[in-house]
Amino acid sequence: MQRWNFRYNQLLEKQGVINYPLRVGTVWHDAQEQFYATKGARVSVATLQFLDTDIPSQVDIEEMKYWNAVLPMMMEAYSIYYKADPIKWTIHAIEREMDIKYRGIRLRGKIDIIGTDKNGNWIWDHKTTSRLNLDVVAGWDFRFQFMFYLWLLSKEEPMKMKGFVINATKKTELRVKKLESLPEFGVRVREDMIINPNKYFFRYQYIITKGQLEYFEKNVVDPKLDILEYIMAHPNDQLAWSLMHNKNTDECQKWGGKPCPYIELCQHGESHRFLYREKDEKHAELENEAA
Hints:
By secondary structure, the chain is of the alpha+beta class. The protein has helices at about 1-10, 20-35, 60-80, 85-90, 135-140, 145-155, 180-195, 210-235, 240-245, 265-270, 285, and strands spanning about 10-15, 90-100, 105-115, 120-130, 165-170, 200-205, 275-280. The strands form two sheets. The protein has a five-stranded mixed beta sheet, sandwiched between helices.
């Protein structure tokens, strides 16, 4: 709740921090959208660029060059491996936005793909990941996002859904060799992905069982909205303040990853607010083309 409060309520983002996983994922989603919208006929991978508010270091500049060389090659390999998708799948919607009112509260989301194969109707979620192992895959089965999107869609769409599809692509572990140019490295990444697709591509269908969406509504959505309603009805109440600032300390530092961007604000309070700036948009991935 604390991170939600900082990110979506107070609209804070840490100055000078360039979120490459988000930006790379945004470009990847855009390329995926083109691939399925044109049935594989045309994909132009966008070039990553710095924003006016960015303060890039030399490391940031080099990382941007890296991704601009690698992402187009990743998409070429993806297009080859999944070239039969336009035949196997009937695509009903791409980047489907959902916007409902439930219990008087506006709830929104965006689904990457709604499609049908021989087994039924599914929602898709494109993922890029640095790790692809059993621990990562097992965690996906319980992701709130996927069940929430299925539940949202059930409020808008009479189409019976079979479940959700994880469409994951692993980022390469190859490293640039000495004297190897980035274009040459990109070609080597593409070749490795084509030769060893099982290292990079993972797709799995998670089936929802009868009554699972009703259970999700009763035991997950409603309790969360109960808390939100209490906070909105009692903004100056001590309990509301405690709920708003409740910290999930398991998320402060992920194994092998970077710390939460709001960790200084949590640790030191308002004295470190100068490290953050207030965004103009509440949910850029919904207002713009990012996902």
